[in-house]
Amino acid sequence: MAPTFVLSVAYPSGGKFDLDYYLKSHMPLVQAKWAKYGLRSWQVAQYTNPDAPYVVQAWLEFEQPEKVSEATASAEGKEIFADIPNFYDKTAVTLSGPLAGAASWHN
Q1: Which ranges of 22-74 does DSSP label H, i.e. alpha helix?
Q2: Which of 3, 11, 20, 60 could be bridged to 7 by S-S, CB 3.0 to 4.6 A?
Q3: How far apart are CA 77 and CA 92, in angstroms?
Q4: In 3-state terms, what secondary structure has residue 22?
Q5: Cα torsion through 106, 32, 86, 78, rounded to 10
């Protein structure tokens, strides 16, 4: 299996964020449009502690780093970015890099 490359999108606190729209409309749009670019999975966290610098953060896992560039530069990427004002009224912060480690288990 190819190494996983992560694109993280963090939404700073202080803006108006529609989590319901984000989870029911935006993220399914991302999944549908970017699967062909190697998007393997996504996760979303909502931060509820009052001093959190971000209100929501998403992690998108891609097969290869160059696929992230292809996805974001594509017509589908433009469609995804044009959807942001439907759920958030500030500018998101993006971070990316290879997944350096992970663990998962069930008790």
Answers
A1: 27-34, 65-73
A2: 60
A3: 15
A4: helix
A5: 130
- Taking the C-alpha atoms of residue 77 and residue 74, their distance in angstroms, rounded to an integer, is 5
Q: Per-residue pLDDT tens for 21-75?
A: 999 999 999 999 999 999 999 999 999 999 999 999 999 999 999 999 999 999 9
Tokens 């966290």 belong to which residue?
45
As a whole number of angstroms, the distance between CA 22 and CA 84 comes to 9
The SS3 of residue 74 is: coil
| C-alpha radius of gyration, the chain, whole number | 14
Q: Are 80 and 28 in contact (CB under 8 A)?
A: no
